[in-house]
Ufd2P_core domain-containing protein (Echinostoma caproni), 232 residues
Amino acid sequence: MSFLLEEALDGLKKVRELQDLRDDSARWSELPRQQQIARMGELEQHERQVRSYLTLANQTVSMLYHLTSEIRGPFLRPEIVDKLAAMLNFNLVQLCGPRCSSLKVRNPESYGWAPKTLLAQLVAIYRHLDSEDGQFALALSKDERCFSRSLFDCACVLMSRHRIQTPEELERFARLGAKLDVVKLHSLKHEPKNTLRDEREAWWTLRAVEVESSAECGNTRQLIRPTGPKRR
């Protein structure tokens, strides 16, 4: 799903750029005829690709939406949950982040582009996977690439403004955002810290590796390092 959506959203941005260029009569008239033809060809190509990617992406998101509404356990398995959380965060950034306006294109329905529906389904998947033990919230907060609490706040504001979710659904999503702060703080407090013993063990391990490497290379002078004062 991540690949399909990423390609579709990147394609939409390119379509928007070419549409802006075409509709700007001053800039468009400055281009030679051959460049105008080339740009129109690029626009048509990106439009075809966007339609194809969005068709598959919408189907995949819809399937995930329905699956997570019925079953949650398989998606919270350790080998899956972190990747799924990162994927959801990435797409939420695209739809609600500072550059979301670049996804506005002319005649979006002609591409199958329904951002409100897509956002509603993505946020619903967040709610479906929210667990009492905080496992999903922890996976979301561990995503260093895209996660931020402000992202959830912006998403809530955007959905409230456009009435994409009901007040009850927005409240549940906002509670998940608040839970992320608690889970993140809890994980930091319980994060194991290196003790003096750990540091000594790490030093001796490194020293053993150096000794073995020196022995294999035949450099016996490095096997024992003098610790006393240098001879004069």
Q: What stands out?
A: The longest helix spans residues 33-70. Confidence is low (pLDDT under 50) at residues 209-232. The radius of gyration is 27 Å.
